[in-house]
Amino acid sequence: MDLVLKLKQNKDLSDEEFLHLLNTEQYDDALRIAADEVRRSVYKDEVFLRGLIEFTNYCRNNCYYCGIRGGNANVERYRLSKEEILECCKEGYSLGFRTFVLQGGEDMTYSDEEICEIVRSIKKLYPDAAVTLSIGEREYESYRKYKEAGADRYLLRHETATDSHYRKLHPSELSLEHRKNCLYNLKELGFQVGAGFMVGSPGQTMENIVADFRFLQELKPDMIGIGPFIPHKDTIFKEEPAGSLELTLRILSILRLMFPYVLLPATTALGTIAPNGRELGLKSGANVVMPNLSPKRFREQYALYDHKICTGEEAAECRKCLEVRVQAAGYRIVNDRGDVKR
Ligand code: SAH
Questions:
Q1: Is 339 contained in some domain?
Q2: Is residue 263, in this structure, part of any structural domain at all?
Q3: Any idea what the CATH number is for the domain that residue 45 is in?
Q4: I want to staple 229 with a disulfide (CB 3.0 to 4.6 A). Which of 17, 71, 191, 243 is the partner?
Q5: Whole-angstrom distance between the N-terminal and C-terminal Cα of the chain?
Q6: Angle formed at CA 133 by CA 176 and CA 203, multiple of 5 degrees
Q7: Atom number in ligand 1 closest to CA 103
Q8: Considering only CA atoms, which residue is closest to atom 13 of ligand 1?
Q9: Is the distance from CB of 199 to CB of 251 less than 8 angstroms?
Q10: What percent of the chain has pLDDT over 90?
């Protein structure tokens, strides 16, 4: 049987079959068409918005690929106060956003109580909006408090499910085991959970990507964030090539076929490596876009990688620009929380 049809029907393939799909372009059209069929059968033409608020670029970690790693002395650091965060939400809400994603480096100056207070304030002002946290690895007890305060979702990309590859990307204080544990804890606490990985990160093999598929099958996340790795000038990987558009799109389609229900963002990184990257992502199975709601004056300082797009626009401009792009790609932005459909 044709591999794409088999994947669509069984939502799974053998390792060898996945490797074959990953290694050749010959199935790309069929993959994209099948992925779009499946996405439309579950989510119709709907695209969900997530308003991204990058509220701190301080970070205690030193992930080798990341532009805001703690060891990068060239970064001008900033953090937003609760009031500034609420200001972003206010603007976002008026623009139709019903999910706010608070993302940042691992900045421990925000205590659990402060994070909870921020979450509670947002939920009180905008009870019909979902709050997503993306603030890295914390203790079970901290996650429990965030949930209790009203946080709905948590994004924590696993980055790679292969230990030896994880070691190439992170200093020894960090471990894959701990990161995976955080994901399982978040699930147990009832968060809608997002995992994911970079495509084409230094040292990544196709076998590593198959291992990522297997881990995702075990975790069953509600969202899977994938985007190309893009080098940052202040990292040891500055000379490494970026992940490819074609492979990222291929993986998006495979993921849509493996996980028909899943929330799959067309990421900013994808839009950065190709001018129409996000549109192509949507056509390949993605159903979420995450425009930036951070104050314009700090946008450039949250540079995870070089040449990041949309750093010079106000939130309203971003919203309008995306409206046009999504529509041109053949889809429609809906202003609701955009919960996962099971
Ligand atoms: N501190 C949080 C948020 C990390 S930033 C956490 O630990 O989860 C969000 C994501 O950006 C990361 O998970 C990583 O996959 C991605 N990222 C970081 N550096 C990148 C780079 N150079 N190219 C592409 N994506 C990158």
A1: no
A2: yes
A3: 3.20.20.70
A4: 243
A5: 28
A6: 30
A7: 3
A8: 157
A9: yes
A10: 99
Atom of ligand 1 nearest to the CA of 157: 13
CA dist 261 and 283 (Å) reads 16
Number of the ligand 1 atom closest to the C-alpha atom of 156: 8
Residue 186 and residue 210: Cα distance in Å, rounded? Answer: 24
Amino acid of residue 5: L
* 196, amino acid identity: G
Give the other-Cβ count within 10 Å of 12's Cβ.
14
Residue 1 pLDDT > 80, yes or no? no
Q: % helix / strand / coil in the chain, to the nearest 5?
A: 45, 15, 40
Q: Which of 66, 170, 232, 270 is the pocket-test mutation for ligand 1 (most atoms within 8 Å of CB)?
A: 66
Residue 133 bridge partners (DSSP):
102, 154
Whose C-alpha lies nearest to ligand 1, atom 6? Answer: 136
Tens digits of per-residue pLDDT, 11-57? 999 999 999 999 999 999 999 999 999 999 999 999 999 999 999 99
- pLDDT computed for residue 342 by the predictor: 82
Angle between helices 206-219 and 176-188 (to 10 degrees): 30
Look at the block and give the residue holding tokens 């389609």.
253
Q: Please give the tally of structural domains in the chain.
A: 1
The domain of 316 spans: 3-334
SS3 194: strand
- Is 205 domain-assigned? yes
Say yes or no: CB of residue 105 within 6 Å of ligand 1.
yes
The torsion angle over the Cα atoms of residues 220, 221, 223 and 226, rounded to 10 degrees, is -80
- What does the CA dihedral 84, 294, 197, 75 come to, rounded to 10 degrees? -90
pLDDT digits (tens, 9 = 90+) for 105-153: 999 999 999 999 999 999 999 999 999 999 999 999 999 999 999 999 9
- Please indicate whether residue 133, judged by its CB atom, sits closer than 6 Å to ligand 1: no
Tell whether 200 is covered by a domain.
Answer: yes
d(CA 128, CA 270): 29
